[in-house]
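Late entry, evening session. Most of the bench is empty. Finally got around to the prediction I had been postponing all week. Sequence below, unchanged from the version circulated by S.P.
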Amino acid sequence: MRQKQSLTTSLIVLISGTFLITTYVLPDLQSKLALFYGGQYANGYFPGVHTGQWYRIFTVALVHAGWMHLIFNMLALYSIGESVERFVGQIRFAIIFLFSLVTASLASVFLGPHNQYAVGASGAIFGLFAALVVIGKKAGANYQNVIGVVIVNLIITFVLPGIDWHAHVGGLVGGFVITYALMFFKRT
């Protein structure tokens, strides 16, 4: 019997495929998918979440700011996504990923600068980091290593310029909240 493809792998294929399309085939599409508040600015009128383009809260995960950004995010997604997905199952994994993505996007849009585009899946990935902290010992992960990885990634978030820390913290908080809720209400 053929094994079902993991949701983590499907996400990596979807995100990487979208990156290739927005980089080499339809470069104008990236600005239409990126997270942006939108509205009237000195340089003109720019559509975004504020002007009704709420889909950007989800599509931000599909676009990245270059090869290195994509590679680091996809490596992180693969390394922690598979573990989280195996432990919680595909449906709960999808809920954690999407909830973290939404909380990351909302934190970025409403707490961050309104005149900058945001791109990447790292907010949702930070939610998966949080999920791994919540389920760490139960899933057989080395808890100290998991906490260490989260701390190092948070330090990088605040040290390197150009990183949307609002999205990372929003995704981390969202990941904790939804994973605790899913594990609390999990039927045994």
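Two things to note before I forget:
The longest helix spans residues 67-88.
The mean pLDDT is 89.
Will write this up properly tomorrow.
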